[in-house]
Design goal:
mainly alpha; 4% strand; two-stranded antiparallel sheet; hydrolase; 11 helices; 313 residues; Rhomboid-like fold; 2 domains; serine-type endopeptidase activity; two-stranded antiparallel ribbon; membrane; Rhomboid family protein; single chain
Length: 313
């Protein structure tokens, strides 16, 4: 059996309009966009709507979608834990511009590693956790009588930045587009800024939401979570478990993948370095997905697949 004949090597449709690899999709137009591009388009569309609506409607539109710190008093507004991440301040255009740039440069790389469905699931999960963190802190610091509202994608983006720094710590990035630093330095600087801002409690920046999103990103990385595996897949077909897996599956370790060789395929007791290299690449796919492979690793897999097919009787 060739490598690309194996079940774990076949690409699959996520059931959400795009394939679970960066840049793939069915059909043309908006449906073929990546998940990150769709997210950016929605954020841009919501911002335009905020700007174009006249003042009374603009206020109502933002009020309905933003997250109030006392959301527990209006439990029917639980949806705002996610929708607030699509809103931005119309008084400061840099709010949406900087968040959009961060999503464009870092979000697309994380999507390449996670796939579209998992990427969006992670972004909104991080945003929800960030929003909850902010609500809890606001209620504690205000003595149970908070009055603020939260809007902006920064909580989800903080999780993305932490993931990027943990997966690619030595990749060079440019702070403010000027100063080149390793990704891990960028993450530490942003976290330090958020911690100091949260302690001082100054300005109108939700530093605690940033910290909540960053913490979620760390936990996601630490436990190798796969959030979208617990979501329903409506197009899976019969017998494929469309209602999702239990929460335990998020933390469950997956079995290692190995290339099993028959005795007659191995003339000596010593291991074959080429086969060991293939095993290493398969373990990388199991842990991080096929999108994480380099061109050289893809070439090695293709060569190995051809060899295995030639061995078939």
């Amino acid at each position: 059996m060739g490598i690309y004949d194996r079940d774990y090597e076949r690409s699959y449709d996520t059931g959400s309009g795009w394939r679970d690899s960066y840049g793939g999709g069915r059909g043309g137009g908006f449906a073929s966009w990546t998940a990150n591009s769709k997210l950016l388009a929605v954020i841009a569309g919501v911002y335009v709507a905020q700007v174009l609506l006249n003042r009374p409607l603009q206020g109502q539109f933002s009020d309905y979608l933003s997250l109030p710190a006392d959301v527990w008093r209006e439990p029917w507004r639980v949806y705002s834990l996610a929708t607030y991440a699509l809103l931005h301040s119309t008084q400061n255009v840099f709010h949406v511009l900087f968040n959009g740039l961060a999503l464009f440069f870092f979000g697309r790389i994380i999507e390449m590693r996670l796939g579209g469905r998992e990427y969006l699931t992670f972004f909104f999960a991080a945003a929800i956790f960030a929003g909850l963190t902010w609500c809890v802190v606001e209620n504690i610091t205000s003595g149970g009588n908070p009055r603020g509202i939260l809007l902006g994608a920064s909580g989800g983006i903080a999780g993305i930045l932490v993931l990027f720094a943990l997966w690619y710590p030595h990749v060079q990035v440019y702070l403010m587009g000027i100063l080149p630093v390793p990704a891990w330095v960028m993450a530490i600087l942003f976290l330090a800024q958020d911690i100091m801002g949260a302690v001082k409690q100054s300005g109108d920046v939700a530093y605690t939401a940033h910290l909540g999103g960053a913490f979620f990103g760390f936990v996601y990385f630490r436990y190798g979570m796969r959030l979208s595996d617990s979501l329903p897949r409506w197009n899976n077909g019969p017998g494929k478990g469309g209602v999702g897996k239990s929460f335990k599956s998020l933390l469950k370790r997956k079995p290692n993948l190995r290339v099993h060789r028959n005795d007659d395929d191995d003339d000596s007791a010593t291991s074959d370095p080429a086969e060991d290299r293939v095993d290493e690449i398969l373990r990388k796919i199991q842990a991080h997905g096929q999108a994480s492979l380099t061109r050289e690793e893809q070439r090695i897999l293709e060569q190995a697949s051809r060899r295995y097919k030639q061995r078939r009787p």
